[in-house]
Structures are given as C-alpha cells and as structure tokens.
Write the structure tokens for this entry.
Amino acid sequence: MHERITLFDGQNRGAWQHTDGRTAQWPLVDGAMEVCCGDIRTEQSFEDFRLHVEFWLPEYPPDVTGQDRANSGVYLQERYEVQVLDSYGKVPLNDDDAAAIYKFKAADVNAATAPETWQTYDITFRAARFDDGNKVEDARVTVVWNGVTVHDDVALAGPTGNGRPEGPTAGPILLQDHGNEVRYRNVWIEPQR
C-alpha cells in the first residue's frame, strides 16, 4: 500500500505555493479552492505517482468557445499538462480539449459531465527514466476521466506546451491559472517510488 498524501482537503492549502514562492492565495469556496492570481504548485516533488484531482467548471454562454471555456490544467512534474476545459458534448475531441495531453494526444472518448458538476481525473504517471543524463525511457501516463480510461499507458515523447524541460529529477504537481474560475477539491497523491 502506497502512502496517500493529501494535497487539498477542502480547507488547507498548505501543500501549495505560487511559482514565485508566495503562499497559495486561491480563495476557498464551498470546500474547494478557486483558481486565482497565478499558477500554484506543490511544495513537494514527485517521481512516479497516482494522482486524484476533482474539478468544477463554471457555465459559460454558448458564444464563449475553445480555450476560453473554463480553461486550466494539471501539470505532472510541471512538465506534462492534462488539459482542464469545458468540452461537454463535443465530438470529436481535439488535442487541446478536456483530458487531452495538451497538444500531444486527444482523450480517446469524451467522458465530460456538464459544467457546474464535479469531475475527476485519476492519473497514473511513470516518470521518464534517465541513465547518465540521457533519457532511456519516455514518461508514461494513464488518465481515467470520470471513471473512463481515456489515455492508456501513453508514452510522452517530451514536455507539453509550457512544461519545463525533462530531466532525471522529480517535479511538483502544478495547477494552472488561465484566468477562469475553475475550482479544485479532494486532491491527493500516492507516490509509487
């Protein structure tokens, strides 16, 4: 049994800080923390892990489209982004829609629920392997979105979008502030090594 570390329990943001080192400022709203005033990342860094994240997306009018619909992201090791977005009812999904490995691979199926409902990502991550400074194995990720596997042990050739460069060191979990009032709750992680 791997030790479960609570990263956010509805009240305590102590596991998080802004990327400039400030204490996490995201306001607490109904047992969740709402995106505000910059990205936050965990103070701890992780290698291989299982991560559970619950998120809530605001309802936008239909004329708000694309990347403006409740955009955020969950970055694994601050390197690889699993997209958070309101993609409810959208078929097919693109590589920048909900649950995408950002700009790398779209989710296999659309498991989104409607805005203003809680959704879950359960992410199993295996860090890239390095030998003497050289990458010998890609990072791998499985994403289960609202109970549906949408990425199954996908190899990640490199970091996504604004992810930091790959390397042999562990990295934090980062939650992105993209200017939308996305909320997060019940965030925990089980390090695997």
Observations:
- The radius of gyration is 16 Å.
